[in-house]
Amino acid sequence: KELWFEAYKVAFCLYLILPDFDPALGMMTGIPPITPMMPGLGIVPPPIPPDMPVVKEIIHCKSCTLFPPNPNLPPPATRERPPGCKTVFVGGLPENGTEQIIVEVFEQCGEIIAIRKSKKNFCHIRFAEEYMVDKALYLSGYRIRLGSSTDKKDTGRLHVDFAQARDDLYEWECKQRMLAREERHRRRMEEERLRPPSPPPVVHYSDHECSIVAEKLKDDSKFSEAVQTLLTWIERGEVNRRSANNFYSMIQSANSHVRRLVNEKAAHEKDMEEAKEKFKQALSGILIQFEQIVAVYHSASKQKAWDHFTKAQRKNISVWCKQAEEIRNIHNDELMGIRREEEMEMSDDEIEETKETEES
């Protein structure tokens, strides 16, 4: 196709430049014209720029010759393409045209699966692939002549159009169902990949498993897993008179972690208070530096220094001063909010201490 397109461009340039160029042949005199039926070239030419005229060439076959339609006529009308169309309707065949001639003309479009020829001058051709139908439509409008005879029974004008066939529709529906199944399978695999893994099943109660869980309850790192197993056993109804003592021991082990958890919470609260205090001190230092920067801007805005700056410098200093004051106010509000929260917490503690004193 690329070779055909390049040859077509060269031929068009020669048509514009050289005087001995034969426009009817599409080539220089003495050189055989390039046709879409030549070996190595597809029957359908590649897309041609809109400013270049489309000229169909004469196609020579073994038993017949195809003459192109008038390029000034509008292209042949076609019906709407059915989904999965692999079958074409071919009308305007010569009365003496045989199935062998039909194969000779259309086998260059692609592999032919079946030909259903009517007693009249038309037939249906089914190809192996859908793109071959587009190649066959390229021949619509061509005049066919058998051999060198000009008899009316040996000539005709081809009309190629899309045809509705049950086989094509059935194959297309099967393909669509297969694609839908593949898409559902792909989505299912993607959902399973993103779904979090299911928790492992809890083992059934036994004396051996009970001893293992009891040991895990004493270990801080394995406590969460073990207490979940204990909860499942109790909800299943594994507690009875024979196993009551074992369950009481495990519950007692779970209760021993209460003091540890309370101490951990107190330690985290202490760390949080220290972090708050550190943040408050850092924020205070930042606020002091912002005050110093704003003071520099205000000093530069006084008359004895302001008159020595240019207009552009004064504008920049004013913008910088405004930005620094806005940021300083934001930090100051944040620091005041922290202090108000501390005062409210202190007042709440005093109220609680007063209530405790009155109750005592």
SSE inventory with pairings:
Elements: H1 2-17, E1 21-22, E2 27-28, E3 59-60, E4 64-67, E5 87-91, H2 99-106, E6 112-117, E7 122-127, H3 131-137, E8 143-146, E9 155-157, E10 159-162, H4 166-194, H5 207-218, H6 223-236, H7 244-255, H8 257-300, H9 303-306, H10 311-359
Antiparallel strand pairs: 1-2, 3-4, 4-8, 5-7, 5-10, 6-7, 8-9
Helix pairs in contact: 5-6, 5-7, 6-7, 8-10
Family: Belongs to the ENOX family.
Pfam family, one: RRM_1
Keywords: Biological rhythms, Cell membrane, Coiled coil, Copper, Electron transport, Membrane, NAD, Oxidoreductase, RNA-binding, Secreted, Transport
Q: Which characteristics define this entry?
A:
360 residues, alpha+beta, Alpha-Beta Plaits, four-stranded antiparallel sheet, 10 helices, 10 strands, elongated
